[in-house]
Amino acid sequence: MTTAPASRPLPQVTHHRAHVNGTTLHYVTAGTTGSAILLVHGFPETWHTFRRLIPLLAASHRVFAVDLRGFGDSDVAPSDFDSRTSAEDLHHLITHLGIGPVHLTGQDISGATVFRLATGHPEDVLSLTAIEMGLAGFGLETLADVTHGGAWHIGALTAPGIPEMLLTGREREFLGGYAFPAMTATPGAISDADIDEFARTYARSGGWRGAIGLYRSMLREGPEIRSLAESPGLNVPVLAIGAGGGSFTADTMSRVVSTGISAVQLDGVGHYAAMEAPEEVAKALLGFVGGIDSPKDGRKAFGESDR
Q: What is the pLDDT of residue 101?
């Protein structure tokens, strides 16, 4: 079902809603040919994170970028929302759209969501690209440890009642004055209009519940993620794209696959790689999925490094 977007329109994409898994997900599409690429955002983001990446991919692929449950213009999440539910949402969306298997791309806190999808529904996934992404059970929890340089906002988001008390009515100040500036290395990559768009969706009633649910998941699901990594395991080709986090993404993904991964490091780029360096991300992603779509080329024809 196509709907008029609440956000400012971008000519490259079409907005849609899908009723799946007991919720309604908002997603955008672009491109009419080629294999399907599904883009999954992190925090404090929505599908809009990929606004400049999508046209670069859509020249040769069908591109889908989703607002996870609780984020953007998708339905608000319930209080018990977690990454398991988020992964099932994506499975049902892929089935509903008939686009599987997809080249799955996740970043930041969507890591557990895309990992669960790839391990729990391997029929849905051709490949996994991890952008600035970690996993609980493999070191991601340390980001909540403020005594060793962790981020204070993780604890704030996971404490009952605190996000609503501290952030309601201050969404733009939090996003534009702290969250994006603290982890961006490319001046001008995130505009005032972008901040307005992100703040618009977090400012709705219950707008923080998606982030709350995924961060609470992160703090408790380490043993389960480690178990999934052992069995059934992650058995698709993996590309790790690191930026402001250095080798963290590649180091993590190397520990959860039985074969080597491809890895690309974007120097001089902050955490929000898709917004800061869309051309570089597109080049890496297209080279990777192109090698999979054309097996004769082989994955090593692309891999900047294999681990």
A: 98
Per the document, the length of the chain is 307
Which token pair is 81? 């929302």
- Taking the alpha carbons at both ends of the chain, their separation in whole angstroms is 42
| Among 141, 138, 86, CA closest to 116 | 86
Rg over alpha carbons for the chain, rounded to the nearest Å, is 18
187 C-beta neighbours (distance < 10 Å), count: 7
CB 124, CB 88: distance < 8 Å:
no
Q: Model pTM?
A: 0.93
How much is the average pLDDT of 57-68?
A: 98
- Give the count of beta carbons closer than 10 Å to the beta carbon of residue 84: 15
Which residues share a beta bridge with 39?
65, 105
- The answer to whether 300 and 306 are in contact (CB under 8 A) is yes
Number of H helices, E strands in the chain: 13, 8
